[in-house]
Amino acid sequence: MNRPLIKEYSFSGEEYDELRRIIGDRVGIALSDGKRDLVYSRVSRRLRARGLSSFAEYLALLRRGDEEELAELVNAMTTNVTQFFREAHHFEYLMSRMLPEVIGEGSRDKVIRIWSAGCSSGEEPYSIAIVLAEFLDRHPGWKGEVWATDVDGAILRQAEEGVYSIDRLKQVSRDRLRRFFLKGSGPNEGKARVGKTLRDLVQFERVNLIEKWPVRNRFDAIFCRNVIIYFDRSHKGQVVEGFSEHLRPVGHLFLGHSESLHGLTNRYRLIGQTIYRLR
User: Which segment of the chain is annotated as a signal peptide (predicted)?
Assistant: First the structure.
């Protein structure tokens, strides 16, 4: 006979409501009533790590403005599911359509800039960098920059390290593996590390999309895939409107397969499968 699960900590509805308000205010993630068990599972780890005996104590810690713990809470609640060349049609469009158009524009500073917003453990920005490196090989005199950002500091450190198990590189061709990755040996057997060519193209930085962005340049494209799906409607609109202010006049916005701009903004037009362009 199955026994009912006995939870380690009590977790009242009021405590859940306060936690999801804090999470919503901090990073814009909208948590429904159905996410209560998920929040319990992830945040209870923080209680253990801090040696706390209740959610009430944890909330008191957050109310006191403990910035380190607020950052840990964000890390705990951020979903990081990604892979190399996920939604492959985006990278095919980047190589065959968008990048040639950028080159064809002519008068500009000859730097192609792409923002990977919500870069998670790095697979997306490194995939972009692979395409960019291959394209730049055929266009001497041009340079490329990928700005990779995420709200989760821990996952950013992992992305900067750029070490992946071989089974996470299944979507990377053999030729690309040979050119852009260093194969591990000894204690690193079964792993590969991103090589210098890609590292030189990608810069990582912690950015919270619902706070002020330290943007220094306009971008030719912004990849923000499977990120705004977690935001409430207000923050979704705020973010995509903000992107429009930091794109070049013919800039592109790439969203995730289940995301849409319908009803959020009129600044873009749909030109492909979850590919948008400024009007």
Answer: none
